[in-house]
Amino acid sequence: MPYSGTMDVDAFAPNVNQINGYKTEAWTLKGAQILNVYYEVKNEPFASLMPVTFHPVIPSYAMLNVTHYPESPVGPFTIADVRVGCRAGVRPRGFTLKSYVSTEAAARELANRWGYPASVADVYLRAFHDRVIGRVKAGDRTILEVEMLDREFIGGNDIQYVSSMHLCRNREDGKLVVVQLDPEWTFIKAERGRPRLGAFEGQAWNGGDKLVPTWPISASYAIADMTLSTIRYVSDPKQDAFKGTTQLAA
Amino acid sequence: MKFGIFYEISVPRPWDGEAEKRVFDNCLEQVALADELGFDTVWAVEHHFLEEYSHCSAPEIFLTACAMRTKKMRVGHGIVVCVPEFNHPIKIAERTATLDIISGGRLEVGTGRSATWNELGGFRANPDETKKTWDEFVRCLPKMWTQERFSYQGRSWSMPERAIIPKPYQKPHPPMWVAVTSPGTEIDAAERGLESLGLTFGSVREQEEKIKNYRRIIANCEPVGEFVNDKVSTVNFLFCHEDSERGNKIGRRMLGTFNYLAAQLLAAREAYPTKSYPSLGLLPTLRKEASGPGDQAGVPEGIAIGDPERVLRACKRWEAVGVDRINFLLNALETVPQAEVLNSLRTFAKHVMPHFQDSSTQAAAAGGGR
Fold it and tell me: Considering only the top CATH level, what class is A25-233?
């Protein structure tokens, strides 16, 4: 006690992107299609997948997300990311280990403006009458394939998204920093269903052999208008969030 | 106003061969002292898989030990999980009746449905179903306790006619409570004529609204049991020390430790999209009141931590908004040494409890059904 992250952030640093300071404008992204699949993951090395800033959730779980944005300032794009469930202090959060985006322009802007750990890959999201499929291909390898089966309508209020946080390097001072993204959603439609994991390569998501999905939890699919807000909080990746968090905006 | 003590039984790592035994022994020693000092009830949760946070997965056994060590204190399930994957309803009726008999009619039966994915996922229970099975269980339990033979054809469970034995010692049956964590559950309690066992640490103002709502609705309830008990309890922390600075310091450490532990659990709503769990359980309140270990923030409003004067003020505030009983958590992860916990109980009994003696007597006289 306390049970905290044990990631060596300096060793992880080559995986992160650079952010152009913390002053960016919000993006309004209308009609986003969001597939979220949650899996419990192997517990034992879980703490090593997040900086000391965070406390791992018990039981350990990962959020496997694929989202298509039909409109954005850089045109349509599809993005996939893998997050691990954690707490910043007592706040529920997902720590994003890695993200893949379908266009160069989106990957560049997400990195420059929010420090998002995005690389370019073939990212695919489609809704069929009986399922929703998300897939990421890097070269000839399928590094993620998730499905939501047996689609069932629910209310948008029934879905609880948690804010995400990720590690990046601030170009202005060269320091590693944890940035929080806390988008706002207005739901147009929401569904849930049975999760299925067809393919997952932990190595490709910076989880190495430590990130091992073990048990399905849930799957949801929503269409929502999203506002990717300005950066409100940054944290020191070498300190507990209680001590090392700075508020930049209300 | 009555005062109870409330156990999650949190056990810090490392879990060597003695860790759990040491914590259980400490709890039982506290219970024996609390009985002597005039505390009214000992409550024990039912939790599973909540490592460090709660090792109280067999509360009926812990409460049996409590009953054997005490003379007057009532023993309370706070709560029995009314979900078939966790507990078959016949077993609940049998176990509770047995405990009521061997405690000499001192049992209180709290009911609830679990709020974490740790537990619901562990037992492979469907989160959509838990409110419905809880409702079915609380309607069946009084009948299983009071009817010589019982049969049932229901939604989540059924049984042919059998004699469910033994029967409770209290007649017509033990008082029944409902754990109130999610918003609106106080309404479920009131509609069924059940007592409200508050398990969150919301502000006095928030709880005042809930209590008003509860009282208004229970006045016209359709009771599931043989009697209506219009009672509201809340849970709180207790660390009472004559030295204010020491009281605040040790109490805040306990509070912060509890907040850390509770926050690490995975709320059902966070993991599984469902209407059945409209809130994140303890998390939103903890967020408001969070103060981690070492934090210099003051003691949150209404929390019974500090010197006797401050603790008295906190308890009087709860009394003023209509709370009938405060149940105290005495420790978290053994951050408070056992000698300090026992001293805190004695200090509370000596300096705070006497200010409530009159209302306690009145409450007992108006208890009904006991």
Answer: mainly beta
